[in-house]
Amino acid sequence: MGAAPMVMWRRRVGVALGLAAALACAGCCRFRYADGGGPLAREELGDWAGMPPEPAPDASALAAKLADLKAIRLPSFRPLRGEYAYTEDPHWLSTEIPDPWDFPFAPARGLVVKGTFPFWARAVPGTRRGHYVYYQPANPAARAFYAVERQWGCGLFVGDFLWSTARVDAYDAATREPVAAKAIGCVLGWGFGPTRFRQILPVGRDGRRGLHALADPAVPLSEARYDVRDAHLMLLGLLGWGRVNHRRYIQLFWTLIPVATVPSTGARSATPRGSGRG
Known about the structure:
The chain is an alpha+beta fold. The chain is 14% helix and 33% strand. The protein is built from two helices and 13 strands; from the N terminus they run αβαββββββββββββ. Strands 1, 2, 3, 4, 5, 6, 7, 8, 9, 10, 11, 12 and 13 form a 13-stranded antiparallel sheet that branches. Strand 12 and strand 13 (255-261) form a beta hairpin. The N and C termini lie far apart (49 Å).
């Protein structure tokens, strides 16, 4: 099989898996559509839904990594090299549907997204690591963001939809302060067995979630508003429970039922800070 047919085959497999995950999540995860009385102020985030940010790389290492990522040509879809780059336009890697193969924190409206991820590492069980940059090449004054993904999957390409875990943290590239986080995991089938999805994203003035909300340097990180989602699902949504912003829900027979209010922490000391120091 030649290079072009191989690329087309991989693209079709990825699209098929993405569509399957999208249909499953859209139908079973009603938490995606709840408001939960949000968004939240940064000091209300507490421990970030159990995802306290891990230490970011030191300044020199981060600068070198960002330079390598920005050097990836645009547009780019080169899975053999593990390189990807695209604009905010629709792309099959940016479905906004949480699954083991999605491009984290995308689509990023108004930002160019570039990243590296070892595609062939999905063929075998094991750990993988991805690196991503989100920025505006035409506006150097705008904030840029760096994200690192740590993933484990059982391989064989489709195996990640049966058993996998992933954690992604995003940082302001200049200050190395955390700005977003996501964790997903499934056992015995994506959405069918125990599946958990957690995500914290800033919310812009337009009400949309995404890193674009903090691209304007005139918006202090301390004044950002955030959307918090933490959902547990089983049996394709027949049973579920979790939190969206200020409310806790249970999901029975694909119906979301509010059951409690999450009190505001009001504790600025709980805000994750200092992850990039050292």
